[in-house]
Write a structure and sequence with these properties.
- This protein has 15 helices and 17 strands.
- With 566 residues, it is an alpha+beta fold.
- The strands form 4 sheets. The protein has a 5-stranded antiparallel beta sheet.
- Strand 16 and strand 17 form a beta hairpin.
């Protein structure tokens, strides 16, 4: 992975990649948030749909029981013999009821206990108590799971407690328009709930009495609230003992005064939804990773290609114009590379034709001058002149002769590239000779920043500049002539001024000279001055400028500025 992450060192690609990561993650979080919300809402809707079906099944069974009870009451009042036997039973003990039946002169045609048994069987054994509230006794006929009955006398408080333990259907009893009491039929709907529940893992049904205790709708309840519901109602599946938060759907029975709560733990509700959500997240991560792999490979290829181009440009600075291979993988980069290769070919051609040709010509000229001039003969002659001047007591002539010999020795013997300090010394030797020739009419002054003395420079370029002052402006009169050489260090370069106090140039001519110095085509302003500029630009590069200006109040100034390219 390390070689593919090199593009992170490139600022443009790093910013693009990080911005893509941030935008993608923000977009993914937003989309996944909406998807999670929609999936959670869908899970709730599925739960409500399921709970509605369960409630309808329970309520349908309850409705069947209520219809059976209603039919029993209708039959009770429609059949005189059944009603007569019922009133014999109503409020009587088992012994009293048996004695009353036996005291009849004729055999009873109806048996209320048999009808009670039929009613319980028709209810699917969901009727557990038939309680008769008579003035003399409260009679409880209790049925077990198999439908077997037990007759007992209980108190009113016990009867009310039994009614609170389940769902009861109550009706007043009248005889000849006189109120005798009431009868309560208590139902146990556990079996209905057991049959209605498809999966009891983290789910449950709760029957809450009295009716209206829980409003209809969807609410979230905590474990403590679930425990309260267990105390106030009847849990058919014990989910309240499980920790966590529950989601419930509530329904009010249309037959009896109770509500049905269908509960599920939140983690159970979210389990299937969460699986799908995790699958979606995994798919997103895979897609995100695949896109990242493509981007990283593309960015690393681009970075590698750019590195190849930059390396070729660095080599071009060393005059090694190696063409960059065209890969054909990106049309834009290939177009840049083709243009760069054309530029390299053009530059290499120019160097071969102009720069190297110029160097060879200059070398040929120097070889020719060296061949024409026997330096040893010149040095020996100058030494004999100096000795004769000393013998004839002319020390200034001897000193000038020695200076001339030293000047020519420096010109011939030194390397082509020398420190600026040595170039200034050669210029000083030349000006010393001019001071000897012109006596009191001439003086010079050097103002040099020590920071420029170690800068490397081609030799013998200052001497032709100061020589121009003597060649064009110097006049034999009583005026004292002054030449000043001023050099200052600049940031990544230097600034140099050569100026005197004599002569001037017409503005039109000055403009023509400066235009010529700004281009490489013409050689106006003196062949020597142009050659100096040409040599300096060959050595330092194109970011060197030479201008000429009139020096107020009188005189000429040659101004040279060099700043090293970045």
């Amino acid at each position: 992975m390390g070689k593919y992450s090199n593009f992170l060192h490139t600022e443009a690609y790093r910013r693009t990649f990080l911005a893509y990561q941030a935008i993608s993650l923000l977009l993914a979080v937003t989309i996944l948030g909406f998807v999670y919300r929609d999936m959670y809402n869908a899970a709730q809707e599925n739960f409500v749909t399921e709970s509605t079906k369960i409630y309808e099944d329970v309520d349908r069974r309850v409705g069947h029981v209520v219809d059976s009870v209603d039919q029993f009451y209708t039959q009770l009042y429609a059949s005189p013999s059944l009603a007569e036997d019922f009133f014999r039973y109503f409020g009587a003990t088992a012994e009293e009821y048996t004695a009353r039946r036996l005291s009849q002169t004729r055999e009873p045609t109806s048996d209320i206990l048999a009808e009670f048994n039929n009613l319980v069987q028709n209810s699917g054994n969901s009727i557990r108590h038939i309680i008769c509230y008579a003035p003399e006794n409260v009679v409880d006929l209790e049925f077990n799971d198999q439908g077997d009955a037990r007759h007992r006398i209980i108190t009113t408080e016990e009867a009310e407690e039994i009614c609170r333990s389940g769902c009861f259907y109550q009706m007043d009893i009248h005889r000849n328009s006189a109120y005798l009491g009431k009868i309560s039929i208590v139902l146990d709907l556990s079996e209905f709930a057991d049959k209605a529940l498809m999966d009891d893992s983290g789910r449950g049904l709760c029957l809450v009495m009295p009716h209206g205790m829980v409003s209809r709708g969807q609410v979230q309840i905590t474990q403590s609230q679930a425990a309260d519901l267990m105390e106030n109602g009847s849990f058919m599946k014990q989910v309240g003992t499980m920790p966590g938060t529950y989601y419930c759907a509530t329904y009010a029975s249309q037959y009896l005064p109770f509500s049905v709560l269908y509960l599920v733990q939140s983690q159970v509700l979210l389990r299937n939804m969460f699986r799908n959500f995790i699958l979606l997240v995994v798919c997103f991560l895979l897609a995100f990773g695949a896109i990242n792999v493509v981007l990283i490979r593309r960015f690393s290829q681009d970075t590698k290609y750019i590195g190849t181009i930059l390396h070729s440009m660095e080599e071009a600075e060393r005059e090694n114009f190696t063409p960059v291979p065209v890969t054909g993988y990106d049309p834009e980069y290939d177009a840049i590379v083709r243009g760069l290769n054309k530029l390299y070919a053009h530059l290499d051609n120019l160097i071969q034709q102009e720069y190297k040709l110029t160097i060879s010509q200059q070398k040929a000229q120097m070889d020719m001058l060296s061949a024409q001039l026997n330096p040893h003969f010149l040095y020996n002659t100058l030494e004999r002149i100096r000795m004769r001047a000393l013998n004839e007591n002319v020390p200034d002539v001897a000193e000038a002769t020695a200076g001339l010999g030293l000047l020519y020795r420096n010109i011939v013997k030194t390397e082509p590239v020398i420190p600026m300090k040595q170039e200034l010394e050669i210029t000083r030797q030349y000006l010393d000779l001019m001071a000897f020739l012109y006596g009191d009419q001439f003086m010079y002054y050097f103002d040099v920043d020590p920071a420029v003395e170690d800068i490397m420079t081609p030799k013998i370029w200052m001497q032709p500049i100061v020589e121009n002052f003597f060649k064009h402006n110097f006049r034999q009169d009583d005026q004292i002539k002054v030449i000043v050489v001023e050099m200052k260090a600049k940031k990544d370069g230097y600034e140099c001024r050569f100026f005197d106090n004599i002569g001037s140039v017409e503005p039109e001519r000055m403009q023509e000279i400066n235009e010529s110095l700004g281009s490489d085509s013409a050689q106006v302003g003196g062949i020597g001055l142009y050659n100096v500029l040409h040599r300096l630009r060959l050595f330092y590069g194109g970011d060197l400028h030479m201008t000429m200006e009139n020096n107020d109040p009188e005189g000429i100034c040659i101004h040279i500025v060099y700043k090293k390219e970045e």
